[in-house]
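Q: Hi! First time doing this. I have a protein sequence and I read that you can turn it into a structure. Is that right? Here it is:
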Amino acid sequence: MKLSRKILAAVTVAAMAVFGFTGCAEEEDENGMLEVSGSNCSINYTNDTTGFSRGFKSLKTKRYDAVCKISNETTALKANGDGVMGYIFALSQNSDKTYNFGLAGVRNDNGTVTGYISYYTGVSGKYLSSGTDFADANGKVAGETGSTCTCVDYTSPIFSTIKTSAGKSFDVWINVVANDGTSEGRTGDAGSYTVSFYTADPLRTTSAVGSNTTYGEGGATAVLTKTIPASATGLSEMTQLDLGFYANVYSTSTLKGTWSLSDIEGDGEPVEYAE
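A: Yes, that's right. Below is the predicted 3D structure, encoded as C-alpha cells:
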C-alpha cells in the first residue's frame, strides 16, 4: 500500500531574539505534539481519536538545505505503523497564505520502514495540521477535481534494507541538497532539489557559503535518491527557503521519535508567515 501523504529554531541567541517578532502560521501543531529545541525536535504523542493527528513546525528562517536524522521508536508492529515522521524543506508561503514545500517522510509498516518524497503547491496551512490529507483552502485534497493544490510523488515507498520491530528504534538520514547547477555536490539543474535516504550517517560537509557539498570517507551510501526538478519547484536558482518538521499520528496510536538537523546551509534570514 502506498505510504499516505498525511503528512527549528534559531542557531544563535541573536537570531532567536529576531524570531520573537516574526510571524508564526497559526495552524502549526495545534495539538501540541512537537517539542523543538534548537535544531532538534521530538515527539511522544498518543492519538486517542478515530482520526489523524497532524502538525508541523518550521524553523522561521530561510535556509538552503540540511541533513535530517530521524529516529523512530516502533511502539506497535502493524500495517501502516504508528504514523509518519517527515522532514519539510523548500517551504514558502504564497500571497493567498497557502504553502509550497517538499516533504520526505518515513514510517514503520509492519516491520519494514517505508518512506516517500513528494512536492506540494498551494496547500492550506489548516490542512497541514488537520483533515485526512493535504488540501487547498476549500478543503479539496490534492488531485481532486477542482483542487487548487497539487502533489507530485517522486518515489516508491519501500526501503527493503531497513527493518524494525516493536520496541525497537530505527534511524534514517535524509539528505536534501538545493542545486545551483555548477557547485560540487550541487550540479543538478539550478532550482531543483536532490533528496537521498541513508541507513547511516552520510558524513556530509558543506562550505560556509553553501556552495560545495562533499562527503567524508566512510560515509554511508544512499539507499534511494530522487530529484525534484526545477520545473516542479518553479525556481530558477538555488534559493533560501524554510525547513521544518512534520508528524502525522494515526488513530489510536503512539508516535515516538526525534529529528535532528545537521549541516544546515544558509544565512538564516528570518521569514514571517501570515497569521
